[in-house]
Design a protein that fits this description.
Largest sheet: 8 strands, mixed
Order of helices and strands: HHHEEEHEHEHEHHHHHHEHEHH
Shape: globular
Number of helices: 15
Radius of gyration: 21 Å
Length: about 400
């Protein structure tokens, strides 16, 4: 019996080690910690898939549940108070310094959380937004926009526009310094921040934003074969298939397997090439990405598909610049822009290409690249060297722009 137990636990230990181990790319921040983080992400994905397979719930619903449990709301402290409210009938959480007098007009960041448009909340992002309020001693409005697939495009971006517009139009009601209002978001939230900035830049009788902050933003859904998508596929469980499913859930309200194949296999991209929107492809040209970002080895796409009928709604939505802001034709007149990219992130090249286009359009751009960073590291913060660097760079930029 002792021998059997001895063999059993050793086999179990070996299998656990095999399951947890994933080779980390050279240069990534805190590789041992990232290995454990990757195993946790993979476990969560397997649990969600199993729950859906057993018909106990949906994959997205389970993922949301796990995401919320891992990232609970923190208690007020460190000189910051928070409260839940509504602006333009959209749920928000407001953070501000305790020492602030009731009628003090403060700079404000309107923050849009990440989560692929299908998960995330003001609760799960509480640590991130609370950190910003504490470090900057300003007001943070974290927006609880509605999520896909229950509320697909354009509902999430409409919620974010409504909140930002209300703040800009009635600053005294919210005790805001209207000259110091910024929209900021990470990942999917970066998409929303860019879309809001584009929309409001063309609106009449709306004060200008001080800046837009785009932290590893998702800005296009046509080409999933840019170098960063191929180099960083499956880093931290963040892969192209999952990313496409998130975009389809956001854009169309469902992730039909055929549409996944159409996008992943490049059929949508090739269709655009033969339409009056062929000019969009110039915005996605990999030749505009500096050579140093192509030096890490990667395999070219092997997922090419043919012969699927292309749904018009898919084509119209995925080429809509309010859905994917990199595709906006005219970028002149946008607010000053902060863009952060991470080397080990599939979305890296989206940010690089957008920074280039904004600069060509005459927009003032500050681009920070975190060499050891990976997707989500901004929210992980002080636990990772790259997270600490990312936060410090963003804080420095914001202090300069808000004259803090």
């Amino acid at each position: 019996m002792g021998f059997l137990w001895n063999v059993t636990w050793k086999i179990a230990l070996a299998l656990s080690a095999l399951y947890m181990y994933t080779p980390m790319p050279t240069g990534i921040s805190n590789p041992v910690r990232v290995t454990f983080l990757n195993a946790a992400a993979r476990t969560g994905k397997h649990i969600a898939n199993f729950v859906e397979y057993m018909d106990w719930g949906t994959e997205i619903g389970t993922t949301r549940y796990l995401f919320e449990r891992v990232n609970p709301r923190k208690q007020d402290g460190d000189g910051v108070i928070s409260y839940d409210s509504k602006i333009a009938n959209v749920p928000v959480r407001v953070y501000q310094p305790k020492s602030t007098t009731e009628d003090a007009e403060l700079p404000v960041i309107v923050y849009f959380h990440g989560g692929g448009m299908v998960m995330g909340s003001v609760n799960s992002y509480d640590e991130t937004t609370r950190y910003l309020a504490t470090a900057l001693k300003i007001k943070i409005v974290s927006v609880g926009y509605r999520l896909a697939p229950e509320h697909p495009f354009p509902i999430p971006v409409q919620d974010c526009i409504a909140v930002t517009k209300a703040i800009l139009q009635s600053p005294s009601e919210y005790n805001i310094d209207v000259s110091k209002v910024a929209v900021v978001g990470d990942s999917a939230g970066g998409n929303l921040a860019a879309a809001v900035a584009q929309k409001l830049a063309r609106a009449e009788n709306i004060p200008n934003l001080n800046f837009q902050g785009l932290i590893y933003p998702a800005l296009q859904s046509l080409d999933f074969n840019l170098p960063s998508f191929l180099q960083n596929n499956r880093v931290l469980g963040h892969d192209r298939l999952q990313s496409i499913r998130f975009r389809l859930n956001y854009g169309l309200g469902s992730a039909d397997p055929t549409n996944v194949e159409i996008v992943l296999g490049g059929e949508l991209l090739r269709h655009v090439e033969n339409t009056d929107k062929a000019y969009l492809l110039s915005y996605l040209n990999a030749s505009h990405i500096p050579q140093r970002f192509k030096e890490r080895e990667y395999k070219t796409n092997v997922s090419r598909t043919e012969g699927h009928p292309l749904p018009q709604k898919l084509y119209k939505t995925f080429t809509n610049p309010s859905f994917m802001p990199l595709l906006r034709k005219d970028l002149q007149g946008l607010a000053d822009t902060y863009i952060m990219t991470c080397e080990f992130d599939m979305l890296r090249d989206d940010g690089i290409l957008y920074a280039r286009r904004l600069k060509k359009a005459g927009v003032e751009v500050k681009w920070d690249h975190i060499e050891s960073g990976f997707h989500g590291v901004f929210s992980l913060g002080e636990n990772y060297e790259a997270g600490k660097e990312a936060r410090e760079k963003f804080i420095a930029y914001t202090k300069k722009k808000f004259e803090l």
